[in-house]
Each structure stands twice: as structure tokens, then as C-alpha cells.
Amino acid sequence: MDFPASLGFTGDHEWVRVEEDGVTVTVGITDYAQGELGDIVFVELEPVDEIFEKNETFGSVEAVKAVSDLFMPVSGTILAHNERLEDHPELVNTDPYGEGWMIKVRLSDAEELGDLLSAEDYAAMVA
Fold first, then answer.
1. Over residues 113-119, mean pLDDT
2. Each residue of 51-68: pLDDT tens digit?
3. Which of 73, 79, 104, 119 lies at 20 to 30 Å from 48 by C-alpha?
4. In the prediction, which pLDDT does 102 show?
């Protein structure tokens, strides 16, 4: 399984990539999570411009085996959705850290990034 060192991770199996501006993050689910869920057939996400606190539900993924809630890894405002997931939810399975990203968020509290797990700590958690 792949856990890029450049990302932060949550115990709920979301990943976070801080973008160059330092206040925008991209969020998705981990390679481990998509593997456990199986073939993803639908992704539902909350609307753009909605404000969420850390750990609130921002959507769900439906797979052949189960439906799983998605939890905000940091507090902030949703800036964008990956619109390609509407017609191609399988991108979460084939490229969870690239084309399978889910949302972009403007951070409201950058200090929350310090609560994320490193790739090494996340890998140890799921081992």
C-alpha cells in the first residue's frame, strides 16, 4: 500500500495535501480505505462554500460492499469538488492520491494540521 510522505493522514482514513499557498488543502481517502471499501460506485459531497468543523461529515462514498462517511480532517470552507467523480467514482480506487481527490478546502485553523498523522504513523496504524 502507498502512503506518500508528503501527505498528512487521519485515523478515519482521509489524507490531506497542503497546497503551495499554505491555506488551501486537498482532501481524499487513503489507498488503504479504498482497498477496504472495494469498488467505489458513487461519491456524495457537501456543497461548495459550506463551512465545516474538524471531524464533521462532509460526504460519503458508496462501494459495492458498504457506504462510508467522509470526515473533515481540518476545519474550513469547501472551495471545490472533484467533479470528475460524478461520472467516474472509480478514480478513487485507481488513483486515490491524484485524480481521485475529493475536495479542496480553505483552512480556518492551520494549527489543526499538526494533529495529522505522518505517513509512517498512518502505515503503522493500519498494519
1. 98
2. 999 999 999 999 998 999
3. 119
4. 98
Amino acid identity for residue 33 in this structure: A
**Residues 12 and 71 sit within 8 Å (Cβ to Cβ):** yes
**pLDDT tens digits for range 19-60:** 999 999 999 999 999 999 999 999 999 999 999 999 999 999
CATH number of the domain that 76 lies in? 2.40.50.100
- Following CA atoms 67, 45, 105, 83 in sequence, which dihedral angle do they give, to the nearest 10 degrees? 120
CB 48 within 8 A of CB 78: yes
Contact 18, 47 (CB under 8 A): no
pLDDT for the residue numbered 2: 87
For residue 123, is it within any domain?
no
Query: Of 23, 88, 86, 36, nearest to 63 (Cα)?
Result: 36
CA gap 3, 117 in Å, rounded = 11
Residue 17 bridge partners (DSSP): 26
The domain tally of the chain equals 1
Alpha-carbon span 61 to 59, nearest angstrom: 7
pLDDT of res. 46: 95
